[in-house]
Specification:
Uridine Diphospho-n-acetylenolpyruvylglucosamine Reductase, domain 3, five-stranded antiparallel β-sheet, four-stranded antiparallel β-sheet, 36% helix, disordered C terminus
């Protein structure tokens, strides 16, 4: 294995300064669940890793100015166990609970999952579904991008050289919105997604669907909204017939996006089933909070 050096950052400012050092080719290290695997496959192209795991600003989960703020170095376990994430970003908490075994869940981070932009990244559909923005820092300054625009293609993002994802912001959903994350893998536990999906549905006082988000991942090159399904749902009363029509439209949309190939029959069947399950879950009566 090729040699490289290690540095630990204690603040965002120190991290971006280390990443921009012209005398080193540095990469950020948070959980290392992708980086350490990759360097066993091929020699590293960097000369130093910059550990950002303990940067306080990147470890927060809090509500601030009608937004849920989640640090990029927050682990899957912390996401899954956070009461704030469970309340305001239910589908993200559910996705975090499906990622690997305890070792991966304890070490893997939200920022790393997005920066790697793997086709099976389970955090991508929930973040896009919940209209999350990624906040980025470099020595040149700060900027933010919708997560939906950050990922360009499998394993490719709009991150600039020496730029660091510091945190994510998600607008707090309306009280009537329910969200869900679902995935299918090759086995029951500790598996990469074969197909995944996040949905968020809000209903008005009459029970009609007022807002709808449906984001599909893994079986498309980049996780994305299926807006043709969303537009079908809005203004309608939930029903088995509506759910079946939405599932059929999603399958048609999948073929339109990726064409037909050897796995088309499987992928469309799986997507139909996931759409129906997601719509049932997000239109079911909300559980009554304890003590009410």
């Amino acid at each position: 294995m090729s040699r490289f050096t290690y540095a630990r950052a204690h603040s965002v400012e120190e991290a971006v300064a280390l990443l921009s050092d012209p005398n080193e080719k540095s990469v950020p290290l948070a959980g290392g669940t992708d980086l350490l695997v990759n360097i066993r496959k091929a020699p590293p192209t960097f000369t130093r890793v910059v550990d950002v795991r303990r940067v306080p600003e990147m470890r927060i989960i809090e509500v601030r100015e009608a937004q849920l703020v989640i640090g990029a170095a927050v682990s899957y376990t912390e996401l899954a166990e956070s009461a704030l994430v469970q309340r305001y970003a239910t589908c993200l908490a559910q996705a975090a609970r499906t990622v690997g075994g305890p070792a991966i869940a304890n070490m893997g981070t939200l920022g790393g999952n997005i920066a790697s932009a793997a086709p099976w990244a389970d955090a991508l559909p929930p973040l896009i579904c919940l209209d999350a923005h990624a906040h980025l820092r470099s020595v040149e300054g700060a900027r933010s991008l919708p997560v939906a625009e950050l990922v360009l293609a499998p394993n490719q993002t709009r991150l600039r050289a020496n730029e660091l994802i510091t945190h994510f912001t998600l607008p707090l959903p309306a009280p009537d919105v329910q969200s869900v994350f679902l995935k299918v893998g090759h086995r029951i536990a500790q598996t990469l997604s074969r197909a995944n999906l996040a949905a968020a549905i809000g209903r008005d006082a009459t029970g009609r669907i007022a807002t709808a988000r449906l984001v599909v991942g893994t079986i498309v090159p980049v996780a994305q909204r299926f807006e043709e399904v969303e537009s079908l749902l809005i203004g309608q009363h939930p029903s088995p017939e509506l759910f079946a029509e939405a599932a059929a439209r999603a399958a048609e949309g999948l073929v339109r996006r990726v064409g037909r190939h050897w796995a088309t029959e499987y992928d469309t069947r799986v997507l139909k089933a996931l759409v129906v399950r997601a719509l049932r879950a997000t239109t079911a009566p909300s559980p009554t909070p304890e003590g009410v």
